[in-house]
Amino acid sequence: MGLKKITFTNNEGQTLVGRLEFPADRNPHNYALFAHCFTCTKNLSAVKNISKALTSNGFAVLRFDFTGLGESDGDFADTNFSGNVSDLVVAADFLKENYKAPSLLIGHSLGGAAVIFAAAEIASVNAIATVGAPSNPKHVKHLFKSGLEEINAKGEAVVNLSGRDFKIKKQFVDDLETKSLPETAKSLRKPLLIMHSPQDDTVGIKNAEEIYVAAHHPKSFVSLDGADHLLFNKEDSTYVGEVISGWAKRYLPIAKRVNEKLRSKHQVVASLDAEEGFTTQMKVGNHYLLADEPEDFGGKDYGPSPYELVSAGLSACTAMTLQMYARRKGWILANVEVHTSYSKTHAEDCEHCESDTAKIDTFTREIKLTGDLNEQQRSKLVAIADKCPVHRTLHSETQVITTLVN
């Protein structure tokens, strides 16, 4: 999927580690920068799923570990919210110097608050999206619970967050008190998408209202009804990524894609990284989609299987051919439905019929015609279905010429 490990240095000279994920043709129309949730990492399933949805829509996405988390250097106890904002600005500078400046910022939970602050310092940003973000960074203090009293008394305390122990110092708490997100959001004047679950019991839905009221138009709100704060359900996080992709394209420059040598020779590109199992990112013509295998085959069912894609081509081509023929004849064909499935069945006529295992590739196609058609017209259309180009290709002798490229 064009996943590349990258490293860059923060303002303290520490190395931060991230993953830069490209669309299938490695030719993104925009770069997005992702800020993960408080104490999370770039590899949280929700972060990966949101990024995957974005890259399948032509974006490149940089997700990285904040200082002291995941693979990045530093001690989390010595970090604070201001440091997270600084890390985002440094990450944006890295993209600008080595690839292209980010035009979209996405933040989850406290990362959502961080991207609003960072957007004021990153000139290239044209759109911001937050997911489950607190309306003020200091609202995360309730997560420290009894540890907050110890922090104030002793200067630090070990608190348990999402099942993991973290040392929190007073400077972290004090830093939160200095940040006013509503004031920052009010002066931002950039398109803002706010996504939040009414059932979020970590950062309440009231936070989304406060951010929305503070911000200027254009601003949008999408309710993530039923989702938990960390978006553990893959359908929720994938939905978030798809919505952000569609929304952002209204505000971002989407230049006409220029195909380079290899890309201009082929209509389809498929890209699969080792760690992704069967989940394959594809660019089909000018469109992006995912291919996968069903869960019972070891896949994640994020997209159609290869044979489902072949069946889809046959169904689409059949429908187009029948409508084109009906228009040419002046027949009233209001709608065509083509239902196709693929399987291997025992061959009725083949070279090795004596073998019980001899099977043949079989596409089962059912056609539903809606319109003012007589029986002769309907029969003719069924015959025409066998003449659609994809049908003919499947019945003709074909060849696949394979070469290695650098």
3D structure, described in words:
This protein is α/β, with parallel strands linked by helices. Helix 10 crosses helix 11. It is elongated and about 90 Å long. The two termini are 16 Å apart.
| Count of individual helical segments | 12
Indicate the overall shape: elongated
| Overall strand count | 15
Q: Please summarize the sheet with the most strands.
A: 8 strands, mixed
Average pLDDT works out at: 87
Strand content: 15-25%
Rg, rounded, reads 26 Å
Strand order of the largest sheet: 1-2-4-3-5-6-9-10
Given the helix and strand composition, which structural class is it? alpha/beta
Order of helices and strands: EEEHEHEHEHEEHHEHEHHEEEHEEHH
Catalogue the unreliable spans: 258-264, 346-350
Spatial separation of the terminal alpha carbons: 16 Å
Please bin the fraction of helical residues.
25-40%
Main attributes of the structure:
406 residues, alpha/beta, 12 helices, 33% helix
Brief sketch in words of this structure:
By secondary structure, the protein is an alpha/beta fold. It contains twelve helices and 15 strands.
Please specify the SSE layout and strand pairing:
Blueprint: E1 3-9, E2 15-21, E3 30-35, H1 45-55, E4 59-64, H2 81-98, E5 104-108, H3 110-119, E6 127-131, H4 147-154, E7 156-161, E8 164-169, H5 170-177, H6 181-188, E9 192-196, H7 206-214, E10 219-223, H8 234-248, H9 261-265, E11 268-271, E12 280-284, E13 287-291, H10 306-329, E14 335-346, E15 359-370, H11 375-385, H12 389-395
